[in-house]
Amino acid sequence: MGRVCARALFGAVLAALFLLVGCVDKGFIRPDYQSADAGVVVLGIGNTSKTSYNSYSLLFHVLSSNASVTTADEPHGQFAYIPKFMMLGDDPDYGTETESCYVVVRQLPPGQYEIYNFEIVKVEGPGQTKYFSPKPISIPFTIRPHEVTYLGNYTAHGLHGRNLLGLPMYFGAVFAVEDRRATELEIARRKDSSLPTDTEDETPDPMQLHSPLFLTPEAARYVK
Fold it and tell me: Please, which domain of life does this record's source organism belong to (predicted)?
């Protein structure tokens, strides 16, 4: 019972962070940003059925911007998927027997951005473990006024092993990156019928990211 309560409490805290972090982190771009000149970013974040973490986030920051973000800190934010647990978190938007995916739809100020890392959280008992890339990555993208920028789908494939006692251990995940525009833009428009019609595809080529943690779907299938 204590473990269940700890997970439920973590879910509530994690969900609340998106509202509270803007109060303590002046550079954080709130998820509810709205403006007349805003652009929209759409991407998918998911996990395989054998990958079980409490949250999956892609971290981004502003490279340069013509928007007025009033802060001394570098403007930054995250695209997150928090799988639902005990009524808290996100329901997947689509999936199969082997994976579930959530489509992020979010307004941002116009400008040049970059996904520079990821964060995966695993809760066990009263504590949590965070996994991220030890080496920053670079996935640049551009937000244009009144346009949709599609960034691709990022599905996590868990890394698992066993300790000296033979007990299962978690080692984070790698992300399979691919273009699922046809499916995910349709879902995004169902979520928000006012999305702009102009769309720019900026799905990165995982082969050009030079990171062992961002792979093609074919390569990610061999991860265990």
Answer: Bacteria
Distance CA 121, CA 130 (A): 5
Q: Is 195 helix (H, G, I), strand (E, B) or coil?
A: coil
Distances in Å between the Cα of 68 and the Cα atoms of 22, 35, 53, 165 are 16, 11, 36, 55
Tokens encoding 3: 């473990």
Dihedrals phi, psi of 87, to nearest 5 degrees? 75, 0
Tokens 């959280």, residue located: 121
SS3 3: helix
Provide the sign of the torsion angle of the four alpha carbons 61, 62, 68, 71, taken in this order: positive
Domain extent at residue 188: 2-220
pLDDT digits (tens, 9 = 90+) for 95-137: 999 999 999 999 999 999 999 999 999 988 888 999 999 999 9
148 in Cβ contact with 170 (< 8 Å): no
**143-198: per-residue pLDDT in tens?**
999 999 999 999 999 987 777 877 777 788 999 999 999 999 999 999 999 999 99
Residues β-bridged to residue 119: 57
Domain tally, the chain: 1
Q: For 22, phi and psi rounded to 5 degrees?
A: -65, -25
Rounded distance between C-alpha atoms, residue 214 and residue 224, angstroms? 15
